[in-house]
């Protein structure tokens, strides 16, 4: 019966759906709401450019007013007489901006930078999403490997428990040995269940990012850890990090807004043309073509306050850029230090696995001969298990660091 069950599980695993990292990334980029939202924001920012460009074009306005009851005062022989009649006025007016001290130009360029910022925000969101998917996939793969190690530990503990029972029956060991082995077996099964739950949570979350219904029976494709070249890493991050690039664009944008705010102090020169038709007591029309100059002499302090606000905003963005640069430098140096540490850890764990396996085999053989205690056997098994798990943890931690450094460099694959 047990052999039949194992054969069934092997066949099930063989035909289970294989979920690759590339497929997870592609699905997440297509379905995640943050990507969709920021894609719409990028399109929306283009509308602000069109709005600003409208100031370059002629502005045509049509105004009409009809009063069914209106009183007119007329002078006749030194006295004023009033007449009540209806009144109708219609006016068409065209204005064309000629010169506004580059206010419109600066505003348009600022909104174009805003469009670039929205695009960089979208790319940053994609890179962050890819990083999150990689980490989830990495975590699920780690839990899969850890599950295999704990399954092997359960099998070892089961065999030790059977040996202990047999030795108790032969009078070579006490019941305390068998009870301790059974407790260790239950602990191993509990650890297995915990690892399995962590695996299911990681896979379920991964499917949530993909926008698909979770399939906990999938198998994951193991990716070999590629070498990460850390030469010039910091320079590459400064040159390609989307958040830092976005802040750089914000500095330029805020500078342009500041220039536009200063230009508003000087007003503008406009070409004006109008045609007016009026029907009130008499019917007549008028037309006008000319140049208009608008100079703000007093605005209650509004313009100066706007200038100061724009200047401070520009300085705040500069400091945000500097703070982000410092944060990236600190984060990168920490990751590179951890990278070197985990490479040493892997070497140590590999050596520990070999030595602990040899110790475990010797102690188990001595236990069968009554030369070792169950405590020594369990300690040897625990040391070997912890070495295997530690090696897995170090390898996948190294992969996580690589994923993080690639994210900081703007990688989206």
Question: What is the compact description of this entry?
Answer:
With 413 residues, this protein is α+β, with helices and mostly antiparallel strands.
Describe this protein's structure.
The protein is of the alpha+beta class and 413 residues long. The protein contains nine helices and six strands, in the order αβααββααβααββαα. Helix 3 packs antiparallel against helix 4 and helix 4 runs antiparallel to helix 7. The radius of gyration is 38 Å and the shape is elongated.
Query: What ranges have pLDDT less than 50 throughout 5 or more consecutive residues?
Result: 1-15
The main pleated sheet reads as: 4 strands, antiparallel
Strand element count: 6
Rg, Å, rounded: 38 Å
- Beta-strand content: 15-25%
**SSE run:** HEHHEEHHEHHEEHH
The proportion of residues forming helix, as a percent range, comes to 55-70%
Estimate the global geometry from the Cα principal axes. elongated
Structural classification: alpha+beta
Separate helix tally = 9
N→C terminal distance: 46 Å
Spatial order of strands in the largest sheet: 2-3-5-6
Mean pLDDT metric: 88
Q: Which helices and strands occur, and which strands form pairs?
A:
Layout: H1 2-15, E1 18-19, H2 21-31, H3 33-53, E2 59-76, E3 79-99, H4 103-169, H5 175-210, E4 219-220, H6 233-240, H7 242-263, E5 268-280, E6 282-294, H8 302-368, H9 374-408
């Amino acid at each position: 019966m047990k052999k039949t069950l194992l054969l069934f599980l092997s066949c099930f695993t063989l035909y289970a759906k294989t979920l690759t990292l590339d497929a997870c990334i592609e699905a997440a980029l297509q379905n995640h709401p943050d990507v969709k939202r920021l894609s719409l924001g990028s399109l929306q920012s283009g509308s602000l450019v069109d709005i600003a460009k409208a100031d370059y074009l002629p502005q045509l306005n049509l105004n009409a007013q009809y009063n069914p009851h209106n009183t007119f005062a007329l002078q006749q022989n030194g006295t004023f007489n009033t007449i009540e009649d209806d009144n109708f006025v219609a006016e068409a007016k065209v204005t064309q901006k000629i010169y506004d001290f580059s206010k419109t130009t600066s505003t348009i360029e600022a909104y174009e930078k805003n469009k670039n910022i929205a695009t960089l925000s979208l790319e940053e969101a994609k890179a962050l999403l890819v990083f999150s998917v990689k980490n989830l996939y990495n975590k699920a793969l780690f839990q899969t490997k850890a599950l295999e190690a704990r399954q092997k530990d359960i099998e070892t503990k089961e065999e030790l428990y059977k040996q202990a029972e047999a030795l108790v029956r032969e009078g070579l060991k006490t019941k305390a040995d068998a009870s301790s082995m059974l407790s260790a077996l239950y602990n191993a099964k509990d650890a297995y269940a915990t690892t399995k739950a962590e695996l299911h949570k990681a896979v379920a979350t991964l499917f949530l990012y993909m926008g698909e219904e979770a399939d906990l029976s999938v198998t994951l494709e193991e990716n070999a850890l590629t070498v990460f070249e850390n030469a010039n890493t910091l320079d590459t991050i400064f040159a390609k990090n989307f958040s830092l690039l976005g802040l750089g664009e914000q500095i330029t944008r805020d500078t342009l807004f500041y220039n536009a705010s200063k230009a508003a102090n000087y007003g503008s020169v406009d070409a004006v043309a109008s045609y007016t038709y009026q029907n009130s007591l008499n019917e007549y029309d008028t037309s006008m073509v000319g140049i208009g100059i608008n100079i703000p002499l007093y605005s209650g302090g509004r313009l100066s306050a706007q200038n100061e606000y724009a200047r401070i905003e520009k300085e705040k963005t500069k400091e945000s850029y500097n703070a982000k640069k410092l944060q990236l430098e600190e984060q990168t140096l920490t990751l590179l230090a951890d990278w070197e540490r985990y490479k040493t850890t892997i070497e140590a764990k590999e050596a520990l696995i070999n030595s602990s396996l040899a110790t475990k085999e010797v102690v188990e053989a001595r236990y069968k001969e009554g030369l070792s205690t169950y405590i020594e056997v369990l300690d040897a098994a625990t040391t070997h298990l912890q070495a295997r798990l530690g090696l897995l943890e170090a390898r996948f931690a190294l992969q996580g660091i690589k994923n993080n450094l690639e994210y900081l460099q703007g990688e989206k694959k």
